[in-house]
Amino acid sequence: MAQRFGSLRVYFPNLVFKIIPDARLSKNQAAFRVPLNVNKLDIKDYLTHIYNVNVTDVRTAVFQGKETVNRYTGQKERTSRTKKAIVTTKEEFEYPAEANVDQDFGGLEVKYEQMRRANKLKGWRIRPSQEMAGLRRQLQEKHEQSKK
Hints:
transferase; Mitochondrial 54S ribosomal protein YmL41; 4 helices; alpha+beta; single chain; 34% helix; EC 2.7.11.1; ribonucleoprotein
């Protein structure tokens, strides 16, 4: 009998944990910026079940927002509060490699489109710059490699 796929419902959390590199932490600790409504048990559960990390301790701190002055009204305002979680693991923690935005997330296409729109606003007689031509060449080469 063939195995059926798609019969089990999987629920992905809509939480965003932003990793914060901190040189002051030990080798088996990592710092995260987490939503305000998440508690220590949720953080431990999230990391163990989704990323298979053996968490031994979680410490959290809520930081007040920075105080600023509105330049139009002159009133004092605060930015939103943030929550930081320091997680201790059993094994040594390694930070992931930094992503290359141009290759992994379409950064070249975004740069090219921004330059094209800026030229369009200047008028229809504007010729593409050397930088724009170089971006177009890089995009063409990238698309040719992806077709192979």
